């Protein structure tokens, strides 16, 4: 077995509190439930189009924010594949942009459970990457907040972090 290093720890004053994580996970669960109810409704997708494998490419020109219409056009397999591809893409980044975090958040909201092994492994990679970036931070900024959100999603909600 390869030796896998521990998940890096961030400065205590930059890490999310247990109370915040609990509150956020409740919000995230409610958001996932609302999306599931909307997506499984009998009505057509928001755009009226048939669901397909529409997914963002590895390099966006220009970068666009995810929309409900875009996400609803994807089927469950495409959403999971897009999430895995996006997580693979960020592995070489030193920072995450707002757009990167929006896409990761949106895809995590919409990915169906139970997760397959490949998606679980990708979420573990996202947790490691976000924790690694967070460990380099010395002061609070927007990226720290976004990283804490992604750490809570991958680590707490999807169970990839065993404390």
TrEMBL record:
GO terms for cellular component: nucleus; SMN complex. It comes from the Eukaryota. Gene3D superfamilies: 1.20.58.1070. Signal peptide: none annotated. Pfam families: SIP1. One of its GO terms (biological process) is spliceosomal snRNP assembly. Belongs to the gemin-2 family. This is Gem-associated protein 2. The lineage of its organism: Eukaryota, Viridiplantae, Streptophyta, Embryophyta, Tracheophyta.
């Amino acid at each position: 077995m390869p030796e896998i290093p521990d998940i890096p720890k961030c400065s205590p004053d930059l890490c999310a509190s247990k109370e915040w994580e609990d509150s956020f996970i409740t919000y995230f669960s409610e958001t996932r439930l609302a999306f599931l109810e909307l997506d499984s409704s009998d009505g057509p997708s928001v755009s009226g189009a048939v669901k397909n494998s529409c997914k963002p490419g590895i390099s966006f020109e220009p970068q666009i924010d995810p929309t409900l219409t875009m996400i609803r056009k994807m089927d469950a397999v495409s959403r999971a594949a897009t999430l895995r591809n996006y997580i693979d893409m960020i592995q070489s980044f030193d920072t995450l942009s707002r757009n990167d975090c929006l896409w990761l958040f949106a895809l995590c909201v919409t990915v169906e459970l139970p997760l397959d092994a490949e998606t679980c492994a990708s979420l573990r990679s996202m947790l490691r990457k976000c924790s690694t970036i967070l460990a380099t931070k010395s002061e609070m900024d927007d990226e720290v907040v976004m990283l804490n959100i992604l750490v809570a999603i991958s680590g707490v909600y999807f169970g990839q972090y065993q404390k």
